[in-house]
Design a protein that fits this description.
The structure is a homotrimer.
Chain A: E1 6-11, H1 16-31, E2 35-40, H2 60-68, H3 86-97, H4 103-112, E3 116-120, H5 121-127, E4 140-142, H6 144-152, E5 156-159
Parallel strand pairs in A: 1-2, 1-5, 2-3, 3-4
Helix pairs in contact in A: 1-4
Chain lengths: 160, 160, 160
């Protein structure tokens, strides 16, 4: 059997709009028969953090950072026109009205379609995020070398 | 005749600086003999919206969104140091002084050089943007599958 | 001897987090045996500006722009949660605590590992930045055609 074509996406930004772009591309790629990897790093980690649960991190600085930078699919904001939540709320309404999946739905769909979701060990180290801070769909944690190795075998590599 | 090398650019951000970067790369690529596609999505759609004309969108939420997120090549702002227009105005002056084309000029040039400009159907659906909201240089609307199909045949794919 | 695999990174954003992402990828790529080029443009130029020295640029507009947009590896701020320097300061502390190199260290390391650092002539022209505005590790200035020529020979091209 021929190897599947690969696509690798670094998800660096953690806004609602960046998350949507990343998951639309990932699930479309998977539906076209590609093997897709999503590598979540920096603010992008927020997208796949658990929505509930205790604040992770040792020491007050990490606790504070992880409080301000809370994350979770339902807390994502638009990168523009958030307007204290008003713009984000409107966008979510419009997405629903046009039958766009929510980020929660997208994560489930992507997982079911075989999209690999990986959290960046380096950022997790700095921010004090253990594996348990992430949803079960995040299958593993890996460093930059893992990403680059996937990317160099990929037809498409994007930094979102 | 040999096939042309391809380059595909997702234009996700809609600031003046991102627009400049995208068009400098697109027109340079075309001048080097590459077949370039620009796929405008999310805020990037603002770059190729008409500067004039009625506000598109059905329902008050879309009308309001398209008012706040007005777009059009002459309304783009710097992603940093906009400073209520002062920074953006200064940058435009400096661009003119160094004979840098305006975004309007870049769109015309790119079109004449055979750069394909496509608007993302998915975002247009959510935001309520019909084909008529865009300048004539935007030759069609297409979904993520179209972009990925172009990208996997491309030597260079970028997400800007 | 076989040619080295290539990776090319456009560094467009100039925040501390984008700089970290770019240098982590560049140095990891180099350690895996890849020939890495970093092409600094727009705000990304700030990362490789000298930390000291007179303000570059002719005319009051450029002088003012280069004052506001001062740059230098030690002046970079987080793209989110800067909070008047508090967030950035905390992040730097956490980076140090986890033995993450500073951007200064990363630039030195990357240079020693053979990563090529290039400044974009076009942006430098608009902003009035001469070669002397940059650290010695920046080996040359080049235009978009140079970048695209590197990118089309690369296995991985990213726009950060």
């Amino acid at each position: 059997m021929a190897e599947k074509e690969k696509m690798t996406i670094v998800v660096f930004n953690g806004s609602l709009d960046h998350a949507m772009a990343a998951f639309i591309l990932a699930t479309t790629g998977a539906s076209m028969g590609m093997q897709v990897s999503m590598y979540f790093t920096f603010w992008g980690l927020n997208i796949v953090k658990k929505n509930e649960g205790p604040l992770p991190g040792k020491g007050w600085m990490r606790k504070m950072l992880n409080l301000i930078n809370r994350g979770g699919s339902r807390r994502l904001k638009l990168s523009k026109f958030n307007m204290f939540g008003l713009g984000t709320g409107m966008m979510k309404k419009l997405m629903k009205e046009t039958n766009m999946p929510s980020i929660d739905d997208f994560i489930t769909m992507a997982h079911q379609m075989g999209v690999k979701m990986i959290a960046c060990t380096t950022t997790c180290g700095v921010m004090g995020l253990p594996k348990e801070a992430f949803r079960s769909e995040v299958e593993s944690m890996a460093g930059a070398a893992y990403f680059l190795n996937e990317a160099r075998q990929s037809k498409i590599s994007l930094f979102i």
